[in-house]
Amino acid sequence: MNSLFDIQASIYNDIKGQVYDFAVLPWGATEPHNYHLPYLTDCYLAHGISVDAVIKAYNAQKIKGMVLPPVPLGAQNPGQRELPFCLHARYETQKAILTDIVASLDYQGIYTLVIVNGHGGNSFKNMVRDLAVDYPHFLIVVSDWFAVLSQTEYFEEKDDHAGEMETSVMMHYYPELVSLSVAGNGAYTPFKPETLRDGTGWTPRNWAQVSQDTGIGNPKKSTAEKGKVYAEAVTKKLSELFIDLVKGEIY
């Protein structure tokens, strides 16, 4: 059996001298996902989706992308960040991480980065605008993979957090990490004012007031087959984005 050092050397030799068209950065969080999913669910899903999409783009148009290690530091809501081992990353922290990654890629001659975001609490728009000032030749595109396609055609119940969609896709990619038998029902309490429910105004939800099991959406009808069908559709769409960025003119 090859040692870890042999494997690392082999990987390095494979990468060395190759020309890569773009990089993909999965970005998640470290937080509870009901009782049946791991804390790193957002990272696992963003990474699995990214890898499949990069493979599809290469198979379709021979463009080469590299999937970077997922970032596990996400922004958390009140009521969630108080829970044991839930990690809250400030805007300034996330921006510093992204800035260093962009600086590294820029120095290496890779000028296109797609952030595949797996955590609803993350928001990168202002960071990307700032970096566009500092690196005007560098293209950063953000995609919330869970919002690429509507859940309606694929799942029976809407998933906002650790529900049917996330659980199904986890069952597709990482079935050994899912313990559906211990899942809570994902019942939640919405805001009372209609103006906050309909989007007239926004404020972070207090997770302790919203959910008993940290889930928002019932995972009980989740299946690996549903997850596979949805993941295939999402990664096909993402692969088309990658191809557009590398092959086409965006203006």
From TrEMBL:
The keyword Zinc applies. InterPro entries: Creatininase-like_sf, Creatininase/forma_Hydrolase. It comes from Dysgonomonas termitidis. PANTHER family: 2-AMINO-5-FORMYLAMINO-6-RIBOSYLAMINOPYRIMIDIN-4(3H)-ONE 5'-MONOPHOSPHATE DEFORMYLASE, 3-DEHYDRO-SCYLLO-INOSOSE HYDROLASE. Its cofactor is Zn(2+). This is Creatininase family protein. Belongs to the creatininase superfamily. Keywords: Hydrolase, Metal-binding, Zinc. The lineage of its organism: Bacteria, Pseudomonadati, Bacteroidota, Bacteroidia, Bacteroidales.
